[in-house]
Amino acid sequence: MFTVRTRCSESLARVGTLRLAHGEVQTPAFVPLATKGALKLLEPRDVEALGYELILGNTFHLLLAPGPEVVAALGGLNEFMRWERPIITDSGGFQVFSMGHGTVADEIKGRRGRAGNGQDGAILAIDESGVRFRSYVDGRERMLGPESSMQVQAALHSDIALAFDECTPFHVTREYTARSTERTHRWLERCLSWHGEHGPADQAVYGIVQGGVEYDLRLGSAAAVAASGCDGIAIGGTLGREKAQMHEVVSWVTRELERLAPERPRHLLGIGEVDDLIAGVEHGIDTFDCAMPTRLGRHGMALVPDPKHRWRVDLTKSAWRASELPILDGCACPACARGFSRAYLHYLLRSGELTGQRLVTLHNLNFIARLLDDLRGGIEATRLEAVAAELRAGGTPGLLGVGAD
Amino acid sequence: MFTVRTRCSESLARVGTLRLAHGEVQTPAFVPLATKGALKLLEPRDVEALGYELILGNTFHLLLAPGPEVVAALGGLNEFMRWERPIITDSGGFQVFSMGHGTVADEIKGRRGRAGNGQDGAILAIDESGVRFRSYVDGRERMLGPESSMQVQAALHSDIALAFDECTPFHVTREYTARSTERTHRWLERCLSWHGEHGPADQAVYGIVQGGVEYDLRLGSAAAVAASGCDGIAIGGTLGREKAQMHEVVSWVTRELERLAPERPRHLLGIGEVDDLIAGVEHGIDTFDCAMPTRLGRHGMALVPDPKHRWRVDLTKSAWRASELPILDGCACPACARGFSRAYLHYLLRSGELTGQRLVTLHNLNFIARLLDDLRGGIEATRLEAVAAELRAGGTPGLLGVGAD
To answer: The CATH number of the domain where A163 resides is what?
Structure first.
């Protein structure tokens, strides 16, 4: 299912190919979100045209609406949303636990604002069987646990299902994290057992490494997940308060996984800022999903090769009111290549014309796709260190002359 | 500037070519709205791909934001919004008078809802010089009259500018309509005079026939506008309460214009329902603009060949919750041709995923483009009557085997 093609000699970075039910994915790869079964403001063909081979759908949201039975009756999530390439579905654990941890996920916040039915989701009970909660869609009591999460993902018939886990937050005790991580391991066994008996044969299952920011818990979790026999391994939960800590926690896990399960693919959950993607690739991550590029785009923030400003420019600022500049010189995205000026995008974003949000979203997804091309190209040309340094210094993705595609 | 290629022997219908600064437009043609300088949820390339050759921008909205000086500094509206084909701009008269007539235009309502700055637009004074009003954008006092409207349209540098007029509503007296229509004629002279001295040489100017539902006023207005020497003639103002009356009022005007100015192009303002387009073409209208297909799309209403239901299906209805059907069998639009089901569109529309609104908008614009293809093809094949009858009976545009393209 996963073949490592080239390994970097100086880091854990690697280039590989995931072979999934709906096709191949060249890694390292970024995975755009189709949270509720749609790429916000975009069509599947738009994301395909940028070179993306894998997207992520959300079990929690699709469970509540339109419901897995509707998606299954229409032939599964690929057929439902007319995306012909591979899909990964998350387990719903992150969203369902976010309701209780007080760190409500942005996805849920977004939904609440829009649904406007006065019924917020809420956790009713957490026990060994899973989580009982109230649906934000219709206020009904619902349940999500290891078996039901796998059942929903089987109905969605994604290429990769994630095992049901508790995404442990940062502010809990070591004691809590330890107990939660243990339960996540037990849930992984139940997920694999349910999937072995009832799941689609062509669906891969990834276990999730938890353990918070505790070195020994992370290593223990990596070992438990590697031992489970799952097809791939995701890294979830809090990674700390700062980027340096996040990169360190990731490196603990990937070093351990390189020892225990070097041939299995590794996914980093919910991380997608430019410097984090570069570091993640160096630490041997194969795939990343994150709302960042698309969400920033909808807020008028465009990605540019400017490390001093977190690779972002805010197009809603009045500085751009009369600017003839494109978002990024030489960029081949549908916004820049067709000559849309910052002035025009500024105007669209300010006046609520959604064409603006669409164009910036496309630009951001192109930026990230080209960044990953360069990182893959750097590994294949055995000069990842130089490529990463260039990108970190403000090199323009896609224009370094190292793109793998 | 306008060449009639084929005239129908049984009606005033005709096929022609408009030669404008940014290219040619085959007529009869429908003109999608880019009210605020953007095709809502779409990019220019999307509308081009459907075969559209002409779009309409709105002087009133673009005056208030981003302002004609910004658009002019960026090279004009074509360059600003990156649309390479011809653009027609309306005069702003409709929007500015709508604030006072109590029949607030939907465009303005839409804007008010979104702007959320607590400042609605309002008319402060109407006199011979034009209209003073308060901007809905920033509450500033602004002015729009014949000269200023032409000045804004010169800055936008559209291919076709419309003369500043009062769009007389239905509920006023004959007396009011008569006086208003006279003033519109005086304004037309001032528009042409300003444009002759200051306007771009490659910009055409259309005068607007008013006169409400009064036979003699409409004929008098047609004569006055035809005598003015404008490049083309638009029909505006109320056309009555019912479709039959609307079609009759249009036919009064076009019959008179056929006598007085048969070689000049004729535009019907704000009309775009399927049966109205068919009747309009039969009455010799060359171009139509209307918010209908795009606005319906954003509300989840898709156009289908179903005359009994006003050519509409409401995809937000729960009847479609599990429907595998496309919007329309055999349709070549980006929604139908790529296999999006009614169930998926229903789900997207219900859950606020804007990809749904985008897809239905594209479908509707394709439906109308193919309808006009068929009508052009019918005229060229000297069998418009049969084609129109087939379309009125529920024939599918684009599948009748008469398309001109």
So the answer is: 3.20.20.105
pTM: 0.95
> pLDDT (tens digit, 9 = 90+) per residue, B233-247?
999 988 888 999 999
Q: How far apart are CA A394 and CA A396, in angstroms?
A: 6
pLDDT for res A403: 59
Considering A270, A290, A310, which residue would you say is the last residue of a domain? A290
Task: Point out the domain boundary residue: A249, A275, A290.
Answer: A290
Q: Tell me whether residue B134 is in a domain.
A: yes
User: Is B286 tagged catalytic?
Assistant: no
Q: For residue A214, what are the domain limits? A: 2-290
Least Cα separation, residue A152 to chain B (angstroms): 17
Domain count for chain B, please give it. 2
Same domain? For B273 and B308 the reply is: no
Two structure tokens written together for A132: 């009982």
Of A42, A80, A341, the CB nearest to B74: A341
pLDDT at A46 over 80: yes
On whether residue A365 sits in a domain, the answer given is yes
pLDDT digits (tens, 9 = 90+) for A146-199: 999 999 999 999 999 999 999 888 889 999 999 999 999 999 999 999 999 999
Question: Does residue A86 lie within any of the structural domains?
Answer: yes
**Is A336 inside any structural domain?**
yes
Question: What's the pLDDT at A168?
Answer: 86
Alpha helix ranges (H) inside B199-307:
215-227, 243-260, 274-282, 292-298
Are residues B92 and B204 both part of a single domain? yes
Instruction: Give the three-class secondary structure for B52.
Output: coil
**Under an 8 Å CB criterion, which residues of B touch A?**
36-45, 65-66, 70, 73-74, 80-82, 114-115, 321-322, 324, 334, 338-341, 343-344, 347-348, 350-356, 358-359
